[in-house]
Amino acid sequence: xxxxxxxxxxxxxxxxxxxxxxxxxxxxxxxxxxxxxxxxxxxxxxxxxxxxxxxxxxxxxxxxxxxxxxxxxxxxxxxxxxxxxxxxxx
Length: 90
What we know:
Shape: elongated
Structural class: alpha+beta
C-alpha cells in the first residue's frame, strides 16, 4: 500500500479563519477555526479581520497538524481560498 496523500488547506475569506488536514480520499482529519467577532453594531472591517487572521494562523496550523497526528513533512499538497471574498483577509 502506498503513502496516504495529505492536504493542508487554508480558508480565510471573511471573518472566519480555519485550517484543515484532509486525505486525498476526502477524509477530514482536523479542521480547527477561529471567528473574528466585532463589537455589537459594527461590521467587520477588512484590515482588522486580516490582523485577526494573521494572529491566529500559525497556532491553527499547529493545532490542525497535532489533531490530525501529522507533521509538516507529511503534507503533500497545500490548498487555499483564492476568492471571491474580502481581499485583505485572503
